[in-house]
Automatic annotation (TrEMBL):
GO molecular function: transmembrane transporter activity
Entry keyword annotation includes Transmembrane helix: yes
Organism the protein comes from: Imshaugia aleurites
Membrane-protein topology: Multi-pass membrane protein
GO cellular component, one term: membrane
Protein name: Major facilitator superfamily (MFS) profile domain-containing protein
Membrane spanning stretches: 130-151, 163-180, 186-206, 218-239, 251-271, 311-334, 346-364, 376-395, 401-423, 435-457, 463-483
Keywords in alphabetical order: Membrane, Transmembrane, Transmembrane helix
Composition skew (Polar residues), residue ranges: 53-65
Region (Disordered): 41-79
Cellular compartment(s): Membrane
Major facilitator superfamily (MFS) profile domain segment(s): 99-491
Length: 491
């Protein structure tokens, strides 16, 4: 026992086993007091700003017991127009390269359609034995198509999606070209231009929205509308070459039909997963903290149509398209009537005009972006006005042909620069409806102005083209100056 006693002096052995702690009951008041999501957010802000911290959670508070309480404990869901988005580029996601190509090819087809009548009108008048006033009806029905498409563009996009909307647009254009290649009676020609207006307006608004929301939107829009210029440059050349080789004027529309069918296929393949790849601008679903997240489509359309930028932008593009298409459609008739040239000699002047527009959009859009779109547009319009006066007042066919090309060069960057400014000023939730209205109502100027030019030309002569264009340039400057100031948007 002595050894045990000695060992016990060094180690104290206690045979008593202490009672274990009580088991923690699964009751809500026994859980630790956890801060809510709102408090965590405030604590994070306080730690970053060295602000005093919030008081701790009061004793006896409970954590949420249900999903509803959890939802109510959070701050209100953010409004959809306050959400931040990642700006896409033309290479990210990779399919955007094909989408931009598809948009450019569709706009190339649009340009071919808009520029061809300038070269074909003298032959249509001879074929149907009609005058300036009657043949101008094709511009009127084209405008009606544009206007009819304005209120339905947003609804089509929502109901069908981007791919099917573009397929519908190209199908309408294909139907119109099928009518034209049959060389039908003139009333059917007039109806076909109604379908062309519907189709072009339906594809133009989504393509403008797509390009305007890419990084460096002015350059993307320059490529988009530069493609329009390429189509408008080559179509008078092809149309003039065909009729000079004794082909009927309707033969040209076989080319347009082929390009439209190609665009239909490419649009479907490139845009079929567009909604999955692109974050939706639609509102969030209703939640207890955000029970009324979105206005109705009718309210969105009303807000878009009453937006100051939409109204002034529509008037601006109305004047721009009116001057552009009036020059394209009537400058050849002016040169034939007042400069006594033959259609075969001056049929290529229209191509020079559209070549100038194309070069302007590709070459002058980036410098205009660096200078500032608002300042650049005013300078470009003033330059175009000066050269328009030269075309009117200098009786020299060669000099006038060069001046017309320079007018096109200076007008070229105006459209992409203007669209980029409109996209900065219009809230994203209104962009589809607003830019559809700008494209449709504004582009109707490309029908109304040539129509009235034709009516006046029937009475007093085609020289009226030039004062009409100068007046439209003045209207453009007035609308442009009235636009709101561009500020950086937080969307």
């Amino acid at each position: 026992m002595a050894p045990q006693a000695g060992f016990g002096a060094f180690v104290n052995i206690d045979s008593r086993i202490p009672s274990p702690p009580l088991i923690l009951q699964k009751q809500s008041h026994a859980l630790p007091d956890l801060p809510t999501a709102f408090e965590l957010d405030e604590l994070s802000k306080a730690s970053r700003g060295n602000a005093p911290s919030l008081p701790s959670t009061p004793a006896g508070s409970q954590t949420p017991r249900s999903l509803h309480e959890l939802e109510m404990s959070r701050p209100p869901s953010p409004e959809y127009h306050d959400a931040a988005e990642v700006v896409q580029t033309w290479t990210n996601p990779p399919i955007n390269k094909w989408r931009l190509l598809s948009a450019c090819l569709m706009n190339l087809g649009n340009g071919m359609n808009d520029a061809a009548p300038g070269a074909l009108i003298p032959y249509m008048e001879k074929d149907y034995k009609i005058g300036y006033a009657i043949v101008s009806l094709i511009f009127v029905t084209n405008a009606v198509g544009f206007i009819a498409a304005a209120p339905i563009s947003q609804a089509l996009q929502t109901r069908l999606g981007r791919a099917k909307t573009l397929v519908l647009a190209e199908s309408l254009m294909a139907a119109a070209y099928i009518m034209l290649v049959c060389r039908p009676p003139f009333p059917v020609v007039v109806v076909s231009f109604l379908f062309l207006g519907l189709g072009i307006a339906t594809n133009l608004a989504p393509n403008n929205v797509f390009a305007a929301n890419l990084a460096n939107s002015t350059t993307a829009l320059g490529w988009l509308h530069g493609s329009y210029g390429i189509g408008a440059t080559i179509s008078p050349l092809m149309a003039t070459a065909l009729v000079n080789h004794n082909h009927p004027w309707s033969t040209f529309y076989f080319i347009s039909l082929s390009i439209t069918l190609l665009n239909l296929l490419l649009a479907f393949l490139s845009y079929r997963n567009y909604e999955k790849d692109t974050p939706s601008i639609n509102p969030l679903h209703p939640t207890p903290s955000n029970p009324n997240p979105s206005p109705s489509r009718s309210k969105v359309l009303k807000a878009a149509l009453t937006n100051k930028t939409t109204v002034l932008g529509s008037l601006f593009i109305f004047c721009y398209q009116g001057a552009e298409v009036s020059i394209s459609g009537w400058v050849i008739s002016f040169l034939i009537s007042y400069r006594h040239s033959s259609p075969s000699r001056v049929g290529y002047v229209t191509s020079g005009f559209w070549a100038g527009i194309t070069l302007g959009r590709f070459l002058l859009s980036p410098p205009a972006h660096r200078l500032g779109e608002k300042r650049a547009v005013v300078l470009l319009i003033c330059g175009a006005t000066a050269f328009q006066l030269l075309v009117w007042l200098v009786p020299n066919v060669v000099g006038e042909a060069v001046a017309v090309s320079i007018v096109g060069l200076l007008l070229g960057p105006v459209y992409p620069c203007a669209t980029a400014v409109f996209a900065k000023l219009i809230p994203k939730r209104l962009q589809m409806s607003s830019l559809a209205a700008v494209s449709a109502l504004g582009s109707s100027g490309g029908a109304v102005a040539p129509f009235f030019t034709g009516l006046l030309a029937q009475e007093v002569g085609t020289w009226v083209l030039h004062p009409i264009c100068v007046g439209l340039y003045v209207g453009m400057v007035g609308c442009w100056v009235g636009l709101p100031r561009v500020v950086k948007r937080r969307e």
